[in-house]
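We both want to read discrete structure tokens more fluently, so let's practise on a single case. Would you supply a protein for us yourself, any chain you care to pick? Would you write everything just below, so we can both look at the same thing?
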Amino acid sequence: MKIQNSIALLCVLLGFSAQSQNSIPIISINPDEVISNEFIGSGIEFSAYPHADTEDSEWGKLMTEEKWQLVFDRVSFIKPKIARVMDQANWRYLKGFDASGNPIIDFESDQMRALYKLLDYCEKNKIAVILGEWGQPYKVHDTHLKLQNSFTGANDPKWIELIVKNLNHLIKVKKYSCIKYYNLVNEPNGDWATTDGDFEQWKEGIQLLHKAIKKAGLDKHISIIGPDATSFNNPKSKYKGLDWARQTALQIPDLVSAYDVHDYPSKESIRSGEFQKTFSELVRFTDSVHKKPFILGELGLKGDPSSKEHLGDKFTSVDSQLSVYDYDYGVDMADALIQSINSGFDAVIAWDLDDAMHTKDDKGDKYKLKRWGMFNSLGKELTDNKADEELRPWFYTWSIMTRYFTGDMKIVKNSNLNIDKVRALTGITKSGDITIAIVNNSDNEANFTIDTKKLKLKSALNKYLYSENKRPVDAKGFPVPLEKITIKNNAIQVSIPAKSVILYTSYQP
């Protein structure tokens, strides 16, 4: 009887073990189920440090060669495929007006030389640049020139002419081929924008700009991106926030070469996956009307700050996200990036790189820093806190996902990943290199198998891990692989801790 009972117990245990193994989800990657064939890659909001770039700036020339090199070293690890460089005529080349009302332009000013330094870097490293101006010059950061009556709006031919003169200089004289798109007015649907939500004014400006670019012979070098709208609804606007993108596709599709919008979703909408649903619908709509690249031009997470350590910091403006100091922000931003690209966006740009780039309303008040960055390159100089120059946790996930999802990849679908708050993103190059990013935004470990039979995988993959207790870095704080894994039986066995990110890649930049 004892032997029979033991055999019965063994059978039960074996049956339970087999059932447990069979219950592990198996996801498959099909190279033929393509989400994006126009993938550009992710990137950063970049700036030439308007408050610290010259002796005449509000803080003086704090951006020394050493500081610039610190920033460029970090950006070189990220390897952004695209950068959004928003500027302002009266920050750089517009020096006032003569007695006849003609603009005084100086393309060799110290401020322009700072911009050239940034563009030189982008040119050398083949980073596509979206160039633009925050708004018409007299309304933004005009503490010196007092140009209140100089321009009438985004549809003022005088401003359009000024913009095209600048573009002509940058493209034909300075030979910057990296400048691919021009962005007329930041978030034009917002009540903070110089257009104050006036769609017709913005559209007329786009029409004038398109005509002027063509007349100047620049249309083979640069094109217009728009509408750059935010999901915020301005009661004064004819259209709701994201409807600006729909109306751009319906009304002026021939005048823009790419669509773009901004969004600052709540952490809850990211963790629930609602974010991806919203933007999948938007991208499907614009694709159905007039398909072209769609870029998420600013991405950050709004919500209650969770970093109690920095609450009440005297250098922090209300336009900040103190979660950038926290581990969880690295998980949430990776999740947001995965959902963005899976929804159909061809590029995603993080807001932003460095706290030292912008202040509230860009008036140069060091006590009103916009705390959104991956670091503060002027931590010692501005806040007397050298430690603030260190890399923050979300640099880890944004950098590896930007570095290893390259512009020559196609983004393909992952099937049967039905684990709550676990999401994946897969990119494949023509040569067969692959990158797979996985986020687990739940409170539980997740286990599953990736079926790789349809992929032409190389024998080994580098595995990166971002978890609360383990995220390997080198001496500079840059991520390094946790291990190299070998593919066995056409499968990758995944065990991902709660609130963490894993990235597998065979791609070498």
Notes: Confidence is low (pLDDT under 50) at residues 8-21, 140-146. The chain is about 30% helix and 25% strand. The two ends are 66 Å apart (CA to CA).
